[in-house]
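Researcher: Re-running this chain for the archive, since the previous output was lost when a drive failed. Same request as before.
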Amino acid sequence: MQVIYEDNHIIVVSKESGEIVQGDKTGDTPLSETVKAYIKEKYAKPGAVFLGVVHRLDRPVSGLVVFARTSKALSRLNTMFANGEVHKTYWAIVEAYPQTHPQGRGVQVDSQQQGVSLTHWLTRNEKQNKSYAYDHEVPGSKKAMLRYQVIGQSERYTLLEVQLMTGRHHQIRCQLSAIGCPIKGDLKYGAKRSNPDGSISLLARRIEFVHPVSKQSIVLEAPLPEETLWQAFGSKM
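Model: Regenerated structure tokens:
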């Protein structure tokens, strides 16, 4: 865990792949407890430490996670996330170059943003912990939208910058897989092989929002993972 920003009301940390944000049935120590222990030790706080979980990242994903340190910040951040007032940018290393075009169903090129917008309808299978994408509405589905652009390329992989317009279960993983670009290491969504450390090559790279209490503009960026391919892409940026 690396602390990226902290004040009296919020703390933002860079999560490593493999960490869980909140406790689950595995019984593994969640990131939330690690952050509580950090706050308790740093500020010599007696008793229990308050920490509100505002959002989550999938276990194999790395990058920025925001926690609330006060109930006031938690309430306001929950509202901000629900209203789309928190802007998250992801970087994804995918196994193919996107072969999308304006005529593709669910695909639209946005010339002003110089990116590509994807729209699918996702259904979620709870038992499999997996989402499925359709190019039309089906019973039980939820509309999912994102925008991406290519920002890097190597001989075998492509680096995409992704902006989420909705927040659905496994949305980026599922939608990129649906256009033939599974994220490197993501076996669940069609990657050819796993990453050695069990991660998938998806990073919550940047987050932008207005501070829930001070109202200052906050723009934060996560460091790139130490893995060789991430560093190679980073050196070209």
